[in-house]
Amino acid sequence: MEHITLLLAIVVVTALVFDFTNGFHDTANAMATTISTGALKPKTAVAMSAVLNLVGAFLSVEVAKTISGGIINEEGIRTEVIFAALVGAILWNLLTWLLGLPSSSSHALFGGLIGAAVMSAGWSAVNGSTIVTKVLIPAVAAPIVAGLAAMAATKLTYKIKADPEAKATAKGYRAGQIASAGLVSLAHGTNDAQKTMGIITLALVTQGVVAPGSNPPLWVIVSAGMAIALGTYLGGWRIIRTMGKGLTDLQPQQGFAAQTSAATVILASSHLGFSLSTTQSCSGAVMGAGLGRKGGVVRWSTATRMFVAWGLTLPAAGLVGAAAEFLTKQGTWGIAVTAALLVGGSAVIWALSRRQPVDHHNVTADDLDGDDSGTPGVVTTAIAAVTPPPAGSVAAVADDGLKATIHAPAPGDPAAPPAPAAAV
């Protein structure tokens, strides 16, 4: 580490900040369904997930090697490009966290990296075939495969068990759900923690600290694992709420099926070096489990917002990364301005999030359409306004907003209107 310059140190710290945001952004992947079904208490769930993310960071380096030597050409890439890429990824992560959208931290990083590299050295700096085979194809295939597997597993679970609502059965599935949630956390560590390892290794290559194609040094593995574990422990409660309650209502059987399916897809991709989105895999599995239960409902309005965020992640982070690289190319003052914009943008997003905070106390609240105090939201209020009153009463609303109920007159009441004449 004696060869690390000030710029490289800034890039390493920024990469670890991204890793931290990746941790709390993706906590929902493993623990949202476990928390929503009551299998684990919120704080216990995120603590367990943090430990297993740290362990998973030490199990493989295949994905890290894909990031450091596959997405872009290492030769001719300046360290400032890595910094600009991280700026784009961090800001997109924070924005989608504020909105409670489970978008892909992985694709935010890829988008920022691609945008910054193209701004720096043109399209020749990007390995198009690697992006297609190890990023785009897994991005489409992973949520579909995980969703179909979860749907099939859910259908099978309800078919082979005559009384899935029995107390003993639910208890057993909750235990299985805890185990499968741990497996997802472990898988997340083997995939997402490595992306930061790959970015830091790429930065080290640009400074000549390590040779191209090298594995991440041990200090990089340890620091990346610690950063993602700390972010996971803090808990991305807004996204946990969306995944656990916003997409569909899950029973323990469905949660177990969703998490097992997602973990299988993530571990297989990590073994093959595919840098897929764990968020998309887990979200697809949750929707598949929701559709697998008879009478289960997926909230497609929430799902649609999520799909839009998925589609925007790569280009949006790419544009921010390209803009940041344009600034860093101007010299020291450009790097300083980029850093100031990153800190300022992050502070603004954090301040906005404090207006309606979501934490472990209200993460399982059912008032998804309103704020966290239980106040009905716009949709709920609109539905109530157009719902007809019960038969036998008329709702009258005074100018001051107070409601009074005028009961229909009983038969024979002098105030009752005369009955219509019978047709001749």
TrEMBL record:
Region (Disordered): 405-424
Gene Ontology biological process: phosphate ion transmembrane transport
Keywords: Membrane, Phosphate transport, Transmembrane, Transmembrane helix, Transport
Upper classification of the organism: Bacteria, Bacillati, Actinomycetota, Actinomycetes, Kitasatosporales
Protein name: Phosphate transporter
Pfam families per record: PHO4 (PF01384)
Biased composition (Pro residues): 411-424
Keyword Amino-acid biosynthesis: no
Domain of life: Bacteria
GO cellular component: membrane
Family indicated by similarity: Belongs to the inorganic phosphate transporter (PiT) (TC 2.A.20) family.
Molecular function terms, GO-annotated: phosphate transmembrane transporter activity
Cellular localisation: Membrane
Segments traversing the membrane: 43-61, 81-101, 107-126, 135-154, 218-240, 307-327, 333-352
Broad class of the protein's primary localization: membrane
Topological type in the membrane: Multi-pass membrane protein
